[in-house]
Every structure is written in structure tokens, then in C-alpha cells.
Amino acid sequence: MVNFGMPRVGHKDFADLFEQNVESSFRVVHYRDIVPHYPLRVGVEDKLYHHVGKELWESQEHFNGTLKHCDGSGEDMQCSDSIPVWRWEPSDHMTYLGVANDNCKTSMTQDLNDEFLNTIIS
Question: Which CATH superfamily is domain 2-121 in?
């Protein structure tokens, strides 16, 4: 499974259970996209929301054909979590892999072919 701009969807126990049951899951994060940082990670550790899937990070504003493969923890401080809150950008949620989302009217995956997806997740 590959998704784009996914927010956190459950706590650490949920993320662990997800990883045990979903064989291959990747989430692409565009540069400073604000959405993957929500819900915020504040509060009691065992109640914090946690990402599922392995992060593939577009570490630059304009897609250059490469994605950084993050550590698989779901919360890699060397990837999108390295962006400080004051630099998060809502407009970065509207473009992924160089393809504009056009206000959610079209599917970005229409412009991506299987060969390209296999390249970025391998």
C-alpha cells in the first residue's frame, strides 16, 4: 500500500498491529506538508498518535526524482519530523511527486505508473 500525505491514525499499539498485518506499507510525505504532523504528538507517551508505514520523504520543495527512505519507526526525526512547526506548509499537501492534486478533483495515482511505484518502494 502506498499513500500520500497521511495523518497519524492511531497510537503506537495500533501502529504495531498494523505493521504486523500489512505486509508492505509506504507513506509519501511532500517536503513541509502539514497534514502528516496531525494529530500532534503531545501528551502521555502511550496515548500519542503514531504513524503507520515506512516514510518516503520528498525532502525538497520541487520533486527531483528521489525520495529519502526513512528509518521505518514511523517517527523518524531525520525525515519530515525534522521540519519545525513554524515551517509546516498547507500548500505542500496539494502536490506530490511533482503532480498537482488540483484540489482533490483528480487522483495523483492516475499519473503514476506501476514501474515508477516499484522504483520508489524497492
Answer: Alpha/Beta hydrolase fold, catalytic domain (3.40.50.1820)
